[in-house]
Amino acid sequence: MAVVSAITFITPLASSMFAPAIPEVMRDFHSSSTTLSSFIVSVYLLGFAIGPIFIAPLSELYGRKWVYIVCGYLSTAFTVACGRSTSIGMLVAFRLLAGAAGCAPLTLGGGSIADMVPAEQRGKFMAIYGMGPLLGPIVGPIAGGYLGDSAGWRWIFYVLAIMLAVVSVVANVALDESHHPTLLEGRARRLNKECGEEGKYKSVFRSELPAGEVFMRAIWRAGVLTNHLAGIYGFSTGSVGLSYLGIGVGSFSGLLLFGGLNDRLYVRLRDKHGADKPEYRLPMLTWACWLIPVGLFIYGWTAEKHTHWIGPILGTGLVGVGLLATFMPIQTYLVDAFPFYAASAIGANTILRSAVGAMLPLAGVPMYQALGIGPGNSLLGGIAAVMMPIPYLFERYGERLRERFNVNFD
């Protein structure tokens, strides 16, 4: 799990580390397009929507380990190419490819946990695994801001590539295969070889068919927070990176809350009703979701009225608590509902979440320019508030929906 969490740390780091250096990139390539500046960052998330289409099924056909390793080396190469880019088009293309390859740990992490951890302990291990995706967005903008100031934006990519190469080599040496059908298939092949009877033993999990990520954080990663705090409070590139600590500390608090409570709630409900149900992961969702619109309103209107900078930071902190305290139960719910196909379930979730996360920032800057920070955040908070009944509906009717629309992956 430590190796998986370390790998998972790098991908969110890469998505956010670049954001504070966007103004320098736009100057170097002689562009002033706000839409393009947002897309340079958010195209990485678009890669998250493409990668799982291939990564999840490959991991369930051939195992987790080699998918982690191959994607790590590919992401390293594409990240170096980003640093060597000579045009915005080249940078965008390699950011897309780096995101598609780099999303492997985010797609496969839940599947690895389903492989190794029993249901009653998965909340705790999902929280440990979540440390990587949490620390990445906290450290990324801070490190990227100061590294961009001192060495230039290209060195952000070179440092990321070095880190990716190191963790890929460590994974190659230290990571063991955890996917049970792949392990059984390997055991069957060994038995066939020893017995000299090809095809006598086979995994019961192997199909006869031929082998054939709450989107609001994406807005801040794409540079909207950078634009707001630099424009209103005159923050430098490095100081803008520090402003991400608000949502980072909030996310860390949400992760601690989830890790401490989710398994306890699950075990209590299981003992009370005498059955294991994935829906027992969802009660935390029903009360944590209201923190997101409240945090958006605080962030928007304190920035709109030019209050002390701590106001917007506190608002983003509340959003961070809400994001993690809703996101992690959803991930664990998917792992519990589809234990043998957790990578595919989380991959499908990642595709939808990342596609929205990649496209929405393109409208974010024009929206704030047209409405202002306060009304713009009120619109986002209103959308989040309208969606608040959804967790209650899933908690109440989720089991009925799963039974009615049973999915056969084979």
UniProtKB/TrEMBL annotation:
<dbReference type="GO" id="GO:0022857">
    <property type="term" value="F:transmembrane transporter activity"/>
</dbReference>
<dbReference type="InterPro" id="IPR011701">
    <property type="entry name" value="MFS"/>
</dbReference>
<dbReference type="InterPro" id="IPR036259">
    <property type="entry name" value="MFS_trans_sf"/>
</dbReference>
<keyword id="KW-1133">Transmembrane helix</keyword>
<feature type="transmembrane region" description="Helical">
    <location>
        <begin position="242"/>
        <end position="261"/>
    </location>
</feature>
<feature type="transmembrane region" description="Helical">
    <location>
        <begin position="340"/>
        <end position="364"/>
    </location>
</feature>
<dbReference type="GO" id="GO:0042908">
    <property type="term" value="P:xenobiotic transport"/>
</dbReference>
<feature type="transmembrane region" description="Helical">
    <location>
        <begin position="376"/>
        <end position="394"/>
    </location>
</feature>
<feature type="transmembrane region" description="Helical">
    <location>
        <begin position="126"/>
        <end position="147"/>
    </location>
</feature>
<feature type="transmembrane region" description="Helical">
    <location>
        <begin position="153"/>
        <end position="175"/>
    </location>
</feature>
<dbReference type="GO" id="GO:0016020">
    <property type="term" value="C:membrane"/>
</dbReference>
<feature type="transmembrane region" description="Helical">
    <location>
        <begin position="37"/>
        <end position="59"/>
    </location>
</feature>
<dbReference type="GO" id="GO:0140115">
    <property type="term" value="P:export across plasma membrane"/>
</dbReference>
<dbReference type="InterPro" id="IPR005829">
    <property type="entry name" value="Sugar_transporter_CS"/>
</dbReference>
<feature type="transmembrane region" description="Helical">
    <location>
        <begin position="66"/>
        <end position="86"/>
    </location>
</feature>
<keyword id="KW-0472">Membrane</keyword>
<feature type="transmembrane region" description="Helical">
    <location>
        <begin position="309"/>
        <end position="328"/>
    </location>
</feature>
<feature type="transmembrane region" description="Helical">
    <location>
        <begin position="282"/>
        <end position="303"/>
    </location>
</feature>
<protein>
    <recommendedName>
        <fullName>Major facilitator superfamily (MFS) profile domain-containing protein</fullName>
    </recommendedName>
</protein>
<dbReference type="Pfam" id="PF07690">
    <property type="entry name" value="MFS_1"/>
</dbReference>
<feature type="domain" description="Major facilitator superfamily (MFS) profile">
    <location>
        <begin position="1"/>
        <end position="399"/>
    </location>
</feature>
<keyword id="KW-0812">Transmembrane</keyword>
<dbReference type="InterPro" id="IPR020846">
    <property type="entry name" value="MFS_dom"/>
</dbReference>
<comment type="similarity">
    <text>Belongs to the major facilitator superfamily.</text>
</comment>
